[in-house]
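Pasting as-is:
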Amino acid sequence: MLPLHYVDSLVPVVVIDRNSRDVLMVAYANEDAVKLTRKTGYAHYFSRSRKKLWKKGEESGHFQRVFRILVDCDEDCLLYEVEQTGAACHTGHRSCFYRTIDGEVVAERVFDPAKVYPNKPG
């Protein structure tokens, strides 16, 4: 494995759909998350707000099966090519990039977050 250059023990991960090539999300991974992703074939990340590892889909059931991991030229960013089950975004949209900078929503919701995350506020 190529050496990765982590910043504050984290590396950004850009996630794309392996077929459509749509950008689904951006998250962060630490060394343990990268190792788990490689070992299991499913995307794992490090939550900066909760300060813990998490497997994408562990609450929602919307998993990301990882088919390939690419590293950028500086070895400080990863790209996961995934098969996305359901939606990538916790707001219920397929991609986290569902609105313009002016706030115009340009994509429909795939699921209702209040039903998928009943114990979370807002």
